Amino acid sequence: MAGLLLLVAVWAGILYGAVPISMQDLMAMFTGQGAADTEQIVYYLRIPRVITAALVGMNLALAGCILQGVLHNPLADPGIIGVTAGAGVSAMAIMILAPTLIFWVPLAAFVGALTALAIVFLLAWDRGINPLRLILAGVAVAAFFGGGTTALWVAFPDRIQGAVNWLAGGFAGARWSYVWIVLPYSIIGLVGTLWNYRKLNALQMGDEVALSLGINLKQTRFILILLAAVLAASSASVAGLLGFVGLIVPHIMRLVVGSDFAFLLPASAVFGAALLVGADTFARTIFSPMEIPVGIFLSFLGAPFFLYLLKRRSRA
Question: Which member of 164, 190, 289, 295 has the greatest number of CB atoms within 10 A?
Fold first, then answer.
């Protein structure tokens, strides 16, 4: 089902936009008989945008799955370990303080995200990664870097316009270079996560059971959280600060395939890709030719679901 949704979302993402493209035009382009304008729009604008959105959606969904499994917290997502806040302040610093170096924003966001993670690890380390300390450290680091972002807004109010869309999260201007930036980390994260699905299943049964199965808890938690951080950081580097994907996708997929990570991880990866491609297509076409950053649309979609989860947990 998730695969079919992804296929439909990809086709819609290619066909619909400010300039609609028919199936006939698309088939003509693939056979070398299409108009030059159609080829420019499809190949240089829409296909890289759709691929980037799919990779980012997959990455965020996998990161959310990992963190919810490792931290035993169904409300965990990449923001809980400070990654998105670190990416945000680094990207804003480049865009506001050195606008001539705007090309380096993706790299700056990636480095900022991993820097935030390193600080969280240092604060949370207590003869290994302690899940509760990690969450508390993540909240503190996110608040610190969030303060840095706000300080830049206040200090340079005349320069923030270019940073607003990035902070809202979206794929406007996505091109093939974005695909090549995020693709290697997506492959590493996907392979590494699927390789460790048995360890994630073991962690769900409690530390004592995991130890009896020969799981090295310190090493396993460190590797899995690092994988989640790399997935989230690479996503933030090209898409800005997108929320709720890592939170809601694992929950939806648990209702469909259950809690076994052998099925939950691949299902979440595919559905996360489908969700973000579909959301981006909707956000950029609903008020066409004006585009809404997909991060805003996801906030409207994710906030009610987050409240539903809180209410459901309060009843449990």
Answer: 295
End-to-end CA distance of the chain: 29
Tokens of 13: 């993402």
The CA angle 107-176-101, to the nearest 5 degrees, is 35
- For 226-264, letters b (16+ CB in 10 Å) and e give bbbbbbbbbbbbbbbbbbbbbbbbbbbbbeebeeebeeb
Sequence-distant (6+) residues with CB within 8 A of 31 are none
Q: How far apart are CA 110 and CA 184, in angstroms?
A: 13
CB atoms within 10 A of CB 126: 10
Residue 220, CA distances (Å) to 60, 197, 230, 312 in order = 20, 11, 15, 30
Neighbours of 161 (CB within 10 A): 9
Q: Quick: pLDDT tens for 43-60.
A: 888 999 999 999 999 999
Q: Which of 295, 255, 286, 293 is nearest to 271 (CA)?
A: 255
The DSSP result for 82-135, as a single string, is: THHHHHHHHHHHHHHH-GGGGGGHHHHHHHHHHHHHHHHHHHHBSSSB-HHHHH
For residues 48 and 175, is the Cβ–Cβ distance under 8 A?
Answer: yes
Q: Of 43, 53, 59, 73, which is closest to residue 10 (Cα–Cα)?
A: 53
Q: What is the pLDDT of residue 314?
A: 58
Confidence class for position 128, pLDDT limits 50, 70, 90: low
| Mean pLDDT on 121-150 | 84
d(CA 198, CA 297): 35
Instruction: Kindly state the greatest CA–CA separation across the chain.
Output: 64
Q: For residue 170, how many C-alpha atoms fall within 13 Å in the half-sphere facing its CB?
A: 22
Burial (CB count <10 Å: 0-12, 13-18, 19+), residue 136 = middle
